[in-house]
Design goal:
The complex is a heterodimer of chains A (270) and B (488).
Chain A lengths: L19 H17 L23 H10 L13 H13 L13 H9 L9 E2 L2 E2 L9 H4 L2 H9 L10 E7 L4 E9 L3 E6 L4 E5 L3 E6 L12 H18 L27
Antiparallel strand pairs in A: 1-2, 3-4, 3-7, 4-5, 5-6
Helix pairs in contact in A: 1-3, 2-3, 4-7
Chain B lengths: L38 H6 L10 E3 L2 E6 L2 E6 L5 E6 L8 H4 L7 E3 L2 E5 L4 E6 L5 E6 L14 E3 L2 E5 L10 E6 L5 E6 L29 E3 L4 E5 L21 E5 L6 E6 L15 E7 L2 E9 L4 E6 L4 E7 L6 E4 L5 E3 L5 E2 L11 E3 L4 E8 L2 E2 L17 E8 L5 E7 L11 E4 L3 E5 L4 E6 L5 E6 L9 E5 L2 E8 L2 E5 L3
Antiparallel strand pairs in B: 1-2, 2-3, 3-4, 5-6, 6-7, 7-8, 9-10, 10-11, 11-12, 13-14, 14-15, 15-16, 17-18, 18-19, 19-20, 21-22, 23-26, 24-25, 25-27, 27-28, 29-30, 30-31, 31-32, 33-34, 34-35
The chains are: A alpha+beta (270), B mainly beta (488).
Chain lengths: 270, 488
C-alpha cells in the first residue's frame, strides 16, 4: 500500500544534539519506541501516539504525569526520569498531535511548493490560498487542521480519510444521464453533485434513478520519493502561517499581511 | 400510560397532508451565550437578526452572516458550503454586532467585506478563501458591514465606523488579483479644496462611512454611492462648514473614483443622518418628460427625486414629520429653521431596501415616525423631555410630487436596528418583514395585506426573489434564519 518509505515525523538536522527536541527524540528512541514504534505509529505492545486527535487538547503536563506514573492497567510502566528528560519527552509526544502549523517540519518548503504545483500534480485538483484547481478540497487550512502524521497518511492513503462533502458518487438519472463527482450536500430527498469541472448539479429525488458510492477517493496514493514527501509536508506547514487571523484587524495591522516567505504561494497582491 | 404514542386526531389525513405547510418557526436565541456581557451587546442582542439580502446564481443561493458566507441549494436551502472566520477582538459598532449586508459575485468568486474591513474573495466551488485585502490604509476604528458591488472587472467596497472615528473611503479592487484600482476619500486631507468645508482643518477621523452598497448606471457608466455622517456627529465644534463629502450622494466615474457630481443631503450634520438610504435609479416619465432619475428617501425625513445626470433636485418633500427645515430650496440646500429641544425625525428611514414599481409608479419605503431630543455640545446632560415610541409605516410615495400616496401602520417595535426593507414584484405584490415578526405580502396598489407568515423572528433584512427550475421563490432572512417561500 505504501508507495514510499515513511519519512520522519520530526526533524533530525535542524537542531543540535543538546537541544530539548533532540533530547526528547533520543529518550523516545530508547524508552518509548520499543512499544510505541520508532515512528510513534504503534508497535506490538503499545498503541500509536499519532493521529489521535483526542490527544491534541492535552497539555504537556498531562503527558508528563502519564509518563511518570505509567498506565499499569494497560501494561505501561512508570518512568521515573529526571525532570529535564521527562519534560523533553513529554513535549515531544505532545507535539505529535499538534496541527502541523505548530510544529517545525523539516524539509525544503520551496521544493515542496514546486512539487505541489509541478511534478506532483496536486494543484490539478486542489487549491491553496487561491491558486490551483477548485475541484477537490481546498488545502489552505490543512496545516491548521491536521497534524503532520495525519497529512502524511492522507497523502499516502487518500481513501482513509475523506473530507466531508467530498464523497465520490456516480449518479444515474432517470433521463439516462450519468454524472460522476462529489456529493457536496446530500439528504434523503436531494443531492448536490459537484462534477470534476467544479460545476454543481442540483438533483432531486425524482430525477435520480440510483446513486452509487464510488471508491472512497479519486485521489491516487502519492508516489513520491521520501525527499519529495518531506518537502511537501514542510510546505504544508508553511501554508498555515499565512492563514493566521490578524490580531487587531480593524486596525491596519501588519500581522494581517502574510509574510511572503511563509506562503506556499503568495496570492495576496496590491 | 400504555406507552402507545397514538393519537385519534384525524384532521390531517392522507387526503390533505400534501397541503401541509410550514406554519411557524421559533429560533432559540442560543447565540446570546457567545457574546460579551456588556451593555452595548445586551441592548443590541435582544434582537439579533441577519441583515443580509441573498444573491442567487446558477441555482445556488449565497448569503452572509456574522463573519460567514453560506452557499445553499436555492430550491431547498440546503447548505453546500459554509465559510466562517473567527470573530476578532476590538471591533466596534454594527460590525461588532455581526451585521453584514451581503456579497457580490464575479466569475468563480464571491466577495464579502469582513467585520474588520477586509475584502475577501472565496472560491464558489470550494467556499474557501482565495484572497483577502485589508482595505484601510491606517489604524482607525474601521468596520465592515457593506455588501460589496461588482462593476466591470472590479469589486467595490466601503467601510463602516463613522460613529467611532474613521477617515471614510470607497475603494475599487481588481477582482482577478485584488489590486487596488482607486480610492475615493470622503473626508479631505489638509490642503484639499474640500478642506475649507471643515473650517480649513478637517479632522483625520472625520467620518463619512460608505457602509451601504450604491448603484451603477451602465448606460452613462456612473457609479452612485452614499456616505455617512461626520464624526463626531453630535459635537460639531471642531468642524465648521458643510463637511464634504459626508452625508452625500456621490456620482462617480467607476474606473477612477472621480466625482462627476455630488449632492449633499444634509450639510453639516449634527443628527447622525447618514445619507445611506438606497439610491434607486429609475428611467420614467415625470411631469410629461422622460427622465433619468435617482430616488432617495433620507434619514433626515425628506424624499428626494434627483436628476441623476446632474444631481439637481427635481422633487423634495418630507415623508415623515420634519421640523428642522421648512423645505429644500431652489439651490438644493435644506432651508433650516431654528431647532427646539425636540428634533423630528430621529431617523425617517435607514439603509433598508426600497422599491419602485413601474406599474404603480409608486416608491415603497419603510418609514419611521419618531422625534428625538436634540443633542449638541453643551446639552448632553440635564433634563430632556420624554421621547415618544417609534412608529413604523409602509409608505408608498408618489414620485411626481413626493407626496405620501398611502401608508400602512405597522404594529411592533421599530427601533433596535430593525431596518427591514421592501420588495416589489410585477405580480402586483410587495413583500416585507414587519416589526412584529410576520412576513407580509401586500397589494402594491394599496398596501392591503394579502398573505402573511408568522416567524416570530426579528426582521432586519429585505426580501429578494428568484427563479430556479422554473419556480419562483421569495426569500428573506429573519432572525438567524433564511426562509424560502414558493407556491405548492
Amino acid at each position: 500500500m505504501l508507495a514510499v518509505a515513511v519519512p520522519p515525523l520530526w526533524g533530525q538536522s535542524s537542531s543540535t544534539s543538546a537541544s530539548p527536541s533532540a533530547r526528547g527524540r533520543k529518550i523516545f528512541a530508547s524508552r518509548c519506541a520499543a512499544c510505541h514504534g520508532a515512528d510513534a505509529r504503534g508497535g506490538q505492545y503499545g498503541p500509536a501516539l499519532v493521529e489521535k486527535s483526542d490527544l491534541r487538547e492535552r497539555p504537556v503536563s498531562w503527558f508528563r504525569d502519564l509518563i511518570r506514573k505509567g498506565v499499569p492497567s494497560a501494561g505501561m510502566p512508570p518512568f521515573d526520569l529526571p525532570k529535564v528528560e521527562l519534560d523533553a519527552v513529554a513535549t515531544l509526544v505532545h507535539s505529535l498531535n499538534l496541527p502541523a502549523a505548530q510544529n517545525a517540519v523539516p524539509g525544503d518548503r520551496l521544493a515542496g511548493q514546486q512539487y505541489f504545483f509541478g511534478q506532483g500534480q496536486c494543484a490539478s485538483c486542489h487549491m491553496v490560498n487561491g491558486k490551483g484547481s477548485a475541484v477537490g478540497p481546498d488545502l489552505s487550512n490543512l496545516a491548521r487542521d491536521l497534524s503532520v502524521a495525519e497529512i502524511q497518511s492522507s497523502l499516502l492513503q487518500p481513501k482513509a480519510g475523506i473530507t466531508p462533502g467530498y464523497e465520490s458518487v456516480t449518479v444515474h438519472l432517470r433521463n439516462g444521464e450519468i454524472l460522476s463527482g462529489f456529493a457536496r450536500s446530500r439528504s434523503n430527498f436531494e443531492l448536490v453533485l459537484q462534477d470534476m469541472k467544479g460545476k454543481f448539479h442540483l438533483l432531486r429525488e425524482d430525477e435520480i434513478s440510483s446513486v452509487n458510492e464510488n471508491e472512497p477517493s479519486p485521489m491516487p496514493p502519492l508516489e513520491a520519493s521520501p525527499e519529495d514527501l518531506q518537502n511537501l509536508l514542510a510546505s504544508a506547514e508553511g501554508t498555515a502561517r499565512s492563514r493566521e487571523h490578524p490580531k487587531s484587524p480593524h486596525l491596519l495591522n501588519p500581522a494581517g499581511f502574510p509574510s511572503r516567505g511563509s506562503f506556499i504561494l503568495s496570492p495576496v497582491t496590491g | 400510560l400504555s406507552g402507545n404514542r397514538y393519537s385519534k386526531l384525524a384532521e390531517i389525513n392522507t387526503s390533505n397532508v400534501s397541503q401541509l405547510q410550514l406554519k411557524w418557526i421559533y429560533t432559540v436565541p442560543l447565540w446570546k451565550q457567545f457574546y460579551p456581557d456588556t451593555s452595548y451587546f445586551r441592548e443590541n442582542f435582544k434582537y439579533f437578526g441577519l441583515e443580509a439580502v441573498p444573491l442567487v446564481a446558477d441555482g445556488i443561493l449565497y448569503a452572509t452572516g456574522p463573519q460567514q458566507t453560506y452557499a445553499l441549494d436555492a430550491r431547498t436551502g440546503r447548505q453546500i458550503w459554509l465559510y466562517s472566520r473567527p470573530r476578532t477582538p476590538g471591533i466596534v459598532g454594527d460590525a461588532a454586532l455581526g451585521s453584514n449586508r451581503g456579497l457580490a459575485i464575479l466569475g468563480d468568486k464571491v466577495f464579502m467585506v469582513t467585520h474588520d474591513a477586509h475584502m475577501i474573495a472565496l472560491n464558489r466551488t470550494t467556499g474557501q478563501l482565495v484572497r483577502f485585502k485589508v482595505m484601510p490604509e491606517k489604524p482607525m476604528h474601521y468596520g465592515g458591514t457593506v455588501a460589496p458591488m461588482v462593476v466591470k472587472d472590479m469589486v467595490i467596497g466601503g467601510v463602516a465606523g463613522g460613529d467611532w472615528g474613521i477617515r471614510g473611503f470607497l475603494a475599487a479592487f481588481r477582482a482577478s488579483d485584488g489590486k487596488q484600482v482607486w480610492r475615493r476619500w470622503t473626508v479631505p486631507a489638509k490642503g484639499d479644496p474640500e478642506a475649507k468645508t471643515w473650517g480649513g482643518d478637517p479632522a483625520e477621523t472625520g467620518g463619512g462611512g460608505t457602509w451601504i452598497t450604491g448603484s451603477y448606471d451602465p448606460e452613462t457608466d456612473t457609479l452612485y454611492w452614499t456616505t455617512g455622517n461626520p464624526y463626531p456627529d453630535s459635537d460639531d465644534r471642531g468642524r465648521p462648514g458643510d463637511n464634504l463629502y459626508t452625508n452625500c450622494i456621490l456620482a462617480m466615474n467607476p474606473d477612477t473614483g472621480e466625482i462627476k457630481w455630488f449632492y449633499q443631503v444634509t450639510p453639516h450634520d449634527v443628527h447622525d443622518w447618514d445619507a445611506t438610504a438606497p439610491v434607486v435609479l429609475v428611467d420614467t416619465v415625470l411631469q410629461g418628460q422622460p427622465r433619468k432619475l435617482l430616488l432617495h428617501a433620507d434619514k433626515n425625513g425628506f424624499f428626494y427625486v434627483l436628476d441623476r445626470t446632474n444631481g439637481k433636485v427635481v422633487v423634495a418633500k418630507p415623508f415623515v414629520k420634519v421640523n428642522w427645515a421648512s423645505g429644500i430650496g431652489a439651490d438644493g440646500r435644506p432651508q433650516r429653521v431654528p431647532e427646539g429641544g425636540i428634533v423630528c425625525p430621529e431617523s425617517g428611514t435607514n439603509w433598508n431596501g426600497t422599491a419602485f414599481s413601474p406599474e404603480t409608479h409608486l416608491y415603497y419605503i419603510m418609514a419611521v415616525e419618531k422625534c428625538m431630543v436634540g443633542l449638541s455640545a453643551g446639552n448632553w446632560k440635564g433634563k430632556h423631555p420624554a421621547e415618544e415610541v417609534a412608529k413604523k409605516y409602509l409608505e408608498a410615495l408618489d414620485i411626481s410630487d413626493g407626496s405620501v400616496a398611502w401608508k400602512i401602520p405597522e404594529v411592533g417595535l421599530a427601533d433596535g436596528k430593525r431596518d427591514a426593507g421592501v420588495l416589489a414584484t410585477s405580480g402586483g405584490l410587495l413583500f416585507y418583514g414587519d416589526p412584529s415578526g410576520d412576513i407580509v405580502a401586500a397589494d402594491a396598489r394599496d398596501g392591503k395585506a394579502l398573505w402573511h407568515f408568522t416567524t416570530n423572528g426579528e426582521n432586519k433584512s429585505s426580501p429578494m426573489t428568484y427563479t430556479v427550475d422554473g419556480k419562483q421563490f421569495v426569500v428573506l432572512a429573519v432572525g438567524p434564519n433564511i426562509l424560502g417561500f414558493a407556491l405548492p
